C-alpha cells in the first residue's frame, strides 16, 4: 500500500529512478497531482493516516476481539511499504536537495527501509489471512492458533530463501507473488464466508461492511503491488523500480480505508472502534434500563400474584371459620412481603451511592475468608489454585470489598461446569499496582457482550432474580477505591479472567509472599 502519485498508464513496464546526486536528480514521474502541496508532506500524511487507523484499532481491542487486533496489525504492515518507499522517493531526495544528507544518514535510512519492505511483501497476505480466519469464527480459538502457526510456514520459508538485508538491495516480486496471491484469495473467501454463520441481522451487516472494505483494499493492493510490480532495487545513491505504473494509484486505497473507518466508526462502530461514544453509551444504558425494568416487572408481578392468591384463600377460610388455615395464609403473605422488601433493599444497596468505611485489612485473609464462604455453594468438583505472589495490608472498605470478591467468585462458580471446574486466584504487586486476578474455565463471555458487562441491569443469566447489578456494583466500589476492574480476557467455551487493580497508595506489601497451589474437592 505504498503511496505514489498517478501518471498516465502504459501497458509496457516502465522504469522509475531517483538518483542521489543533488544536481542530477531524476524524480519519479508526475509527482504533482496535489498541486501546491509539498510531495513529502503528502506521502508522510498518507502512511501516517493508515498507521493511525491501525494503532487506533489495536488500542481499542487490546483486551478485546483478537481478530480486530490482527486486522490492526495487518493495516500497520500495509503501511510499511509506503513508509519505506517514502524514504527513497521523498525523504532522501528532500534531504539531498537541502544539503542535509550525509552518507551515514543515507545508509541508515536505507537500512531502516529494508525490514519494512520485507514485512510488507512477505507478511501482508499472511496477516490478512489470519485476520480473516479469526473473524470468520470457522475454527475455535485453540484450532485457530494452531492454524496461524502452520500458515506462517510457507511465507517464512520464502523469506528464509530470499531475504537479504545488505546494500545494494533488490527484490524480485515473482518470489513472493504466488504465496501472497493464495493467501489473499483465501482471506477474501473467509471474510465473506463468515457472514453466512452469523444469525443476528445487525451483526451480519457489520460483517458485510468489514468484508467489503478489507477485501477491496487487499485485492487492490495485491493487483497493484504484487502483480503490477516486477522488481525494485536501491543502494549506492540510487533507487529504481520496474512496474506497469498501477502502484501510482495506491493512494486511493488509503483514502478508501480511512474514509470507511471514519464513516462506519461514526455511524455504527467498526472493527471494535465506536466513535459515537456518548450516543452509544446512552443507547446501551437505555437498552439495559429497559431490560432491568422487564426483570423487575416480572419479579414483582409474580410476588403480587402470590399475595393476591393467598389473600383470596384467607378470605375463603375466614368465611368458613377455619382460623388455622387463615393464619397459614397470612403467614405466607408476610413471607412474600418480606421477600419483596428484601429484593428492594438488594437493588437499592447495589444501585445506590457507595460510601466507604476504610480500614487496613490483610489481603490474603480477606480473599481466603470470602472464598471459604462461597466455595460450598458450588455443587460440583472444583480445583482451586491460589498463587499469592503479593500479600500485605490493603486500605479498603472490608464489607464492600468482600461483596465485590463474593460477586466475582459466584460468577465464576456459576459459569464453571459441575465436573472438572478450575478456579485460579492470583495476587501480584507490579508497576506500583496491586492486582487480583480471578480466572475460571467456565462458559466465557461472548465478544459482543464484553463491552456491556459492567452496565447496570445487563445480565446474561436466565434467573429472574438476577438484576444485572452485580458487576455494575463492583465497578462502582473499585472506582471509589481509586482502582479499576476489567475483563482481562474471555473466550466462549474457554473461560474468563477478571482483574482488579488497586493503586500503590492503598497497599503495604508484606516482606514475603508465597504461591500456594492446592485442590479443593
Features:
single chain, 521 residues, alpha+beta, 3 domains, six-stranded mixed β-sheet, 13 strands, disordered C terminus
Characterize this entry briefly.
It is built from 13 helices and 13 strands. It has helices spanning 39-60, 66-97, 103-136, 141-151, 153-162, 174-193, 201-227, 251-267, 277-319, 323-351, 363-374, 398-415, 470-480; strands at 14-19, 169-172, 229-234, 238-243, 358-362, 382-388, 392-397, 421-430, 433-440, 484-491, 495-503, 507-509, 515-517.
How is this structure best described in words?
The chain is an alpha+beta fold. The chain has 13 helices and 13 strands. It folds into 3 domains: 262 residues; 72 residues; 160 residues, Histidine kinase-like ATPase, C-terminal domain (Heat Shock Protein 90). It has a 6-stranded mixed β-sheet with strand order 10-11-9-8-6-13, with helices on one face. A 4-stranded antiparallel β-sheet has the order 1-4-3-2.
